[in-house]
Amino acid sequence: MTADVLSALTARARAAAHPAREPCHCGTGAAVLADRPDGVVVRHAGTVAKAHAADTDRGDLAARLAVAAHPRLGGILLPPLGERADDLQGRPVTCWPYGTPVDRETPEAAPWEAVAVLLARLHRTPGSVLPAGLPAMRGPAKAARAVARLRAAGPRPEAAPVLRAWAALPAWARDEAPMPDARTLCHGDLHLGQLVRTRHGAWLLIDIDDLGTGDPAWDLARPAAWFACGLLPPDEWTRFLTAYRRAGGPAVPADADPWPALDVPARALTVQTAALAVAKSAAARRPLDEVETSVIDACARMAARPPELAEECAT
Amino acid sequence: MQCPKCHAPMHTYNRNGVQIEQCSGCRGIFLDYGELESLTRLEGQWSQPAPPPPAGPQAYPSAPAPAWGAPHGGHGGHYGHKRQKSFGHMLFSS
């Protein structure tokens, strides 16, 4: 992103931090929290301004903002500062209170129970709360985009098992058909970077760009995929799943095998992760590391095991 | 080598000096000629009953996993006391 857009975004963050147009005496500049084509995030004092991707559908974003601002989602989703997105050089901009993220240096201290309870509460949001124009969650769309990025990286031997595993998924998981269950409110891109702690100590979910209705198992599928690939220790996965079930989360049965519900989304997120790993390693001209290889190995094992009950489950 | 049943790659493990091939997919085990007898012989040497597994930090029962999952335990898992940097990054990435 160009420097002038960054400085303009910084000005938005500063203006949102000082809404009464009082002069800024914070004595701090702005910190760039993220700078990617799909989102630039700048912090000034207790306020964060986000420039969304230029191709963001304005109506979809408005509906997603309305969900985050709804009182029923209080304590679950971080509420925005203002319910409308501004425009900044062709990109929609939203403002949010700053929250402290999960410490990347100590992922073993990840708040698995807290994120599970937040997801369960999100998934139990009554349909009456959701605005009419709320689109589908974008989990399958993101997986499809990762696979497109893999294909654009050119032919590579590591790509073959990933593309085979992708081809075996049902059409809805590849974003080529509507999702079978499109009633439940989902986050759409859950990972540990999507949690912040407020000044009051409570964890909240952030990033509404992929929020929408869909199969709630998708929100459990990243931890499920990490566990299945042998990356997330079983006890951390069990803590997460147990907390989700205790909080009444509807994505998996309360006391039966969760894998018939998790299988397709966890495969899709394994493919997504593997596709991005291959594309990124190709771009950086570096070999795949052991963790990336374990995700590709999981894709290779999927070939021998077609998705179980993929279509039958999805009624 | 590949598993004759599900065609996933097989990994070699050494159990008490006996080489065992275990499938990374279905977890089936392949024994070469004479290896079953070697294992049986080893079993006979265990005159004492094995001590009970220590009760302790392993408080969780084994979690169900999908058929395409990595074999847990042994060297199938990549987790441990030191979490790999690459996985730490993955935990926070879209």
From TrEMBL, chain A:
<protein>
    <submittedName>
        <fullName>Aminoglycoside phosphotransferase</fullName>
    </submittedName>
</protein>
<dbReference type="InterPro" id="IPR002575">
    <property type="entry name" value="Aminoglycoside_PTrfase"/>
</dbReference>
<dbReference type="InterPro" id="IPR011009">
    <property type="entry name" value="Kinase-like_dom_sf"/>
</dbReference>
<dbReference type="Pfam" id="PF01636">
    <property type="entry name" value="APH"/>
</dbReference>
<feature type="domain" description="Aminoglycoside phosphotransferase">
    <location>
        <begin position="81"/>
        <end position="254"/>
    </location>
</feature>
TrEMBL record, chain B:
<dbReference type="InterPro" id="IPR027392">
    <property type="entry name" value="TF_Znf"/>
</dbReference>
<feature type="domain" description="Transcription factor zinc-finger">
    <location>
        <begin position="2"/>
        <end position="40"/>
    </location>
</feature>
<dbReference type="Pfam" id="PF13453">
    <property type="entry name" value="Zn_ribbon_TFIIB"/>
</dbReference>
<feature type="region of interest" description="Disordered">
    <location>
        <begin position="42"/>
        <end position="94"/>
    </location>
</feature>
<feature type="compositionally biased region" description="Low complexity">
    <location>
        <begin position="57"/>
        <end position="70"/>
    </location>
</feature>
<protein>
    <recommendedName>
        <fullName>Transcription factor zinc-finger domain-containing protein</fullName>
    </recommendedName>
</protein>
